[in-house]
Amino acid sequence: MVSAFKKALQSGKFVVTSEVGPPKGTTLDKLKHHVELLRDKVDALNVTDHQSSVMRYPSLGGALLVKELGGEPILQMTCRDRNRIALQSDLLFAHSRDIHNVLCLTGDSVILGDHKEAKGVFDLDSSQLLATIRLLEKGKDLGGNALEGSVSFCAGAVVTPEADPLEPQLIKFEKKVEAGAEFIQTQAVYDLDNFKKFMDYARQFPVKVLAGIILLTSAAMARFMNKNVSGVRVPQELIDEMASAPKGRALEKGIQIAGRMIRRLREEGMCDGVHIMAIGKEEVVPEIMSAAGLL
Amino acid sequence: MIRSITRPKPEQEIDRLLEGLGRVFIIGCGTCTTLTRTGGENEVREMRNHLTKKGKMITGDAVLPVACDNMAVLALKDYADQIRLADVLLIMSCAFGVQTIARQGKKIVVPAVDTLFIGKETSVGLFDEICTQCGTCIIGETGGICPVTSCHKGLVNGPCGGTKNGKCEIDPARDCAWTLIYNRLKDLGRLDAMRKYQKPRNHQGEPMPGKWMVGGR
Questions:
Q1: For strand B126-128 and strand B171-175, is the pairing parallel, antiparallel, or unpaired?
Q2: Which CATH number fits domain B2-116: 3.40.50.2000, 3.30.1490.100, 3.60.10.10, 3.40.50.2300?
C-alpha cells in the first residue's frame, strides 16, 4: 500500500503539506471547512494530536474526516498520552481505515497544556515509535507476537534546525532516519541561509525534508515565538519587516514573507517541499501558496 | 549524601486534614526535614505556635533523631501520655517517617509536608533528583547522567524539540538533561554512545511496589 503522499514524495515534485487542528469539542464544521478548502491544493494535510498538550477531538478522528472528505491525511501521533499498547492499537486502527501516513512526535510536556496535572506517558519516544511502525509492518508487535494482518505506513518525524545546542538534535535526527523516518517536517525556519546549512548536512541521508513555514501574523507574534517557543528563531530583520506593515496589514505582510520564503526554497531546490502551518489562520493558506507561485 | 526532599503542605490543606481534630501532637525529624528546614526544631516550634493561634490544643511535640528508623517508636515512648491525649499526630518528616510511625502506633497520622523526591545536595541548599530507582539502569551509556530522571520526559534516545538554550521547555531554570549528557560524552570522546538506539524501556524492571530481600530473590 503506497499512499498518495508517499507517491508525491517519490515523484520528485516540490511537495506541499499543511495542517488542520481538531476542535475542543464535537463541532466539526470549521475543521471540515478547512479540509475542504485545502484538500485539493496540498499533497497532504497533517491532523494535529492535542497540539500544545491541549485536550481536543482526536487526531485519529480528524484524519478519518480528512479521508471521508477526499483528502490525504497525515496522522500526527505523540508519545505523551498513550503507552505502547495504545499507540500500536491506534496504528492498527489507522491502517484498517486507510490512513497510511504518520508523523511521529515525542509531544510537548503536559505542563504546557490545559490539563497540567495529567500524567505524561512517554512510554516510547519518537524514534522508538518509528521503529515500532517498521516492526508492525513486518507483522510483529513490541511484545514479540505475530499480527493477524500487518500495517503499512509512510512514516515521518520532526527536526528542529534552529535547536540550541544543535548537534544533539542532529544525532537524534540521524537516529530517526535509521529508525525508519521517510520524511521530515521541520520546526519553523525563518533564516534560510542557516536552513541551507542544515540541508547541506541533511542531504546526506535518505529522507525527504519539508521545511516548516509558520505564518507570521504580527511583529508581536514573532517576538512571542522567539521568547517562548523552543527551536524557533525569527531574525530581527523579519520582525522589523512585520512591524513596518501599515496598521491592519500585518497579516498581508506575513503572507508575503511566507510566500517569498517558499518561492526561494523551491527555486533554489533547497529542500523537497514545505509544510505550511497557519495556526488559526488556515483560511489564508491558499493565499500563501499563490504568493509562492504554487497555485 | 541522599536526602528525602520535602515541601510544606499548603496551610489550607493542613487545616482541612486537621478538621475536627482538636488535640495535636507534633513530630519533627532530626535528619532530612531538619536539613531542608521543613520539619526540624524551628519548624516544629513555628507549627506549634501557628496551630495554637488557630485554637488547637498542642499536647506536646518531639523531634525524633531519624523518623524513618524503626527505633522512632521507642523514642516516642517518652511522650506516651502526651500522645495518648492527642487526637492526631501531625508529622513533619518525609512520608517514610510518617509511614514508619503510622505502622507502629495507633493514632491517626497527618503529614505536614509533601515528599517530593530522594535528592542529592548538588550545591549548598540545592537538591536535585538524579535517580528514580527505576531498576533498569542505563547510565553506563549516558556518561553517568540519568536521562530517565533528569529529562522531564524520561527520554532515552536524545533530546526532544523542547530544548531552549540548553534548558528544558518546562522551566528555563532546569537544564536539558540531553544537553548535559551530550557535553559530557563529547568531553569523553564518546558521542558514539549517544548515537546508539535505545530500545523501549522495561518499565517493570522492579514492579511497583518494590520488594527485595538480602541475598536477592
A1: unpaired
A2: 3.40.50.2300
